[in-house]
Amino acid sequence: MSEPRETAAEAEEVVGGLYHWRIHNSGIGGNVSSSHALATGDVCVLIDPVRLAEDAMASLPRPTAVVLTARCHQRAAWRYRAELGIDVWLPEDASAADEEPDRRYADGDVLPGGLVAVRTPGPEWPHYSLLLEGDPGVVFCSDLLMHAGDGALRFVPPEFHEDPAETRRSVVKLLGLPFDILCFDHGAPIVDDPKAALRRLLESSR
């Protein structure tokens, strides 16, 4: 199974309706694995969820769907499907997962919570980021980047990517999206001018 053994103790609210939690994942050498919940109206989407303590999960709006940005981020998705009776969404071109998803999606599809699927290859071809347009706009960036919490970004090490050059092109693509908050699968969100952080990374890694 793909679920990490660690459980996050608590979730923090980044802005109204956007929550973040993380673990030090022993399955990836103790590095941080991050997850998010997005609550809009009557919908609450878990995005690439690692397990969250029961009391902390109970404090969030009740989840109504799980969206996975890639097969490699199944994490606790199947646990929450079984416990909560909610659908799991997976890219339509992803290879077989631990369990069969309820729904599949493709580039440009609108997903629960109004999230728009944006193909961002590099780690692999069936690999997506998610865009929430609005005020504030939010991008959920999957395995392209890591953020240690100091505002400085790093690329996920190239040995974990099928095509590191394509990863860089995907990061450039993110700059063209309308967002104010950048969330990661590996690190804390950036809420203060995340596009400047992207530009600094691209400039320093030329």
Explain briefly what this protein structure is.
This protein has 206 residues and is α/β, with parallel strands linked by helices.
Structural account:
With 206 residues, the protein is an alpha/beta fold. It has one domain: Ribonuclease Z/Hydroxyacylglutathione hydrolase-like (Metallo-beta-lactamase, Chain A). 17% of the residues lie in helices and 30% in strands. It contains four helices and 13 strands. The protein has helices at 54-58, 77-84, 164-175, 194-204; strands at 12-15, 18-25, 31-40, 43-47, 65-67, 87-91, 103-105, 116-119, 128-132, 138-141, 145-147, 153-155, 181-184. The strands form three sheets. Strands 1-2-3-4-5-6-7 form a seven-stranded mixed β-sheet. Strands 8-9-10-13 form a four-stranded mixed β-sheet, with no helix packed on it. A hairpin with a 5-residue loop joins strand 2 and strand 3 (31-40). Helix 3 runs antiparallel to helix 4. The longest helix has 12 residues, at 164-175. It starts with 11 loop residues before the first strand and ends with a helix. 40% of the residues are buried.
CATH C-level: Alpha Beta
Can you summarize the main beta sheet? 7 strands, mixed
- CATH homologous superfamily? Ribonuclease Z/Hydroxyacylglutathione hydrolase-like
CATH architecture type: 4-Layer Sandwich
The H-and-E topology, N to C, reads as EEEEHEHEEEEEEEHEH
Strand content: 25-35%
Helix content: 10-25%
Shape from CA axes?
A: globular
Distance between the termini: 38 Å
Low-confidence runs: none
- Count of the domains: 1
SSE class: alpha/beta
Q: What is the average of the pLDDT values?
A: 95
CATH topology: Metallo-beta-lactamase, Chain A
